[in-house]
Design a protein that fits this description.
2 domains, 238 residues, globular, Elongation Factor Tu (Ef-tu), domain 3, six-stranded antiparallel β-sheet
Length: 238
């Protein structure tokens, strides 16, 4: 496993509680849209065993051609040790990145794609949308639906309707409206449904989608196969 130590190039205040940390991109480092990474803070590997409280699994919110590794995260007033340290970090300080992988690349199967997310989960989808804008081959259209009760919606300059690109986007601030819209979207029985959020959010979305007849293979989760099987046993039918 190769560990890259890299500097914070920029810190962007997206909303009062959400920051994007732009990290310098190591020379031989690359990734796909929808990738996640292990982000670690100084001291995580100082002992005999890694200090897991100083390591977090984060989505990358940028594409390689942006030449910076973007990490977008919510940091509340009361937060973990990891985020407390991260909140106090400044441009020029170093963090470690390693173990890059994607579970949710953009599938190009001549179908409609639906991106379902909660809050900062939208960061996972930013690269998918940008990748689609650059090349729409074999994707019929994309629709994004995000729920955020704070109403401080993210990346509104990207997640705005673009009819000429066959891209639509919705933001809602309550579960009732959100799940009613999920049911409407699930009328497309051939669509691909990407879901990113908390485990509870994933379970709720899967339940609604399955009730509407959407099959497990049509539901994409940012989970490795073992974790995915816990949410979507492929042999369970409705």
């Amino acid at each position: 496993m190769k560990i890259y130590w890299t500097k914070i190039n920029e810190i962007i205040d997206e909303t009062p509680e959400v920051k994007t940390y732009m990290l310098e991109c190591p020379e031989d480092y690359t990734w796909e849209e929808g990738s996640h990474i292990h982000l670690a803070l100084e001291g995580f590997n100082a002992g005999d065993k890694p200090n897991r409280s100083l390591i977090r699994h984060m989505s990358i919110s940028t594409l390689p051609h942006e030449n910076l590794i973007g990490i977008t995260t919510r940091i509340k007033e009361q937060c973990s040790e990891f985020k407390t340290i991260l909140r106090e970090m400044e441009v020029g300080q170093e963090v470690a990145v390693f173990k890059t992988h994607t579970n949710v690349p953009l599938k190009r199967e001549d179908r409609n794609v639906y991106l379902l997310s909660a809050g900062v989960g939208l960061a996972t989808f930013r690269p998918l949308v940008l990748d689609y804008f650059e090349c729409a081959d074999n994707v019929n259209q994309i629709h994004s639906l995000n729920i955020d009760s704070s109403r401080d919606f993210l990346f509104t300059n990207i997640f705005e309707p673009a009819p000429d690109k066959k891209f639509t986007s919705q933001f809602v601030d309550n579960r009732k409206d959100y799940y009613e819209e999920v049911k409407n979207l699930a009328e497309d029985k051939a669509g691909l449904f990407y879901v990113v959020g908390s485990d509870e959010f994933l379970a709720e979305n899967i339940e609604v989608l399955r009730e509407q007849g959407i099959q497990p293979e049509q539901i994409m989760l940012d989970k490795h196969e073992g974790q995915r099987a816990e949410f979507l046993p492929s042999d369970v039918s409705i």
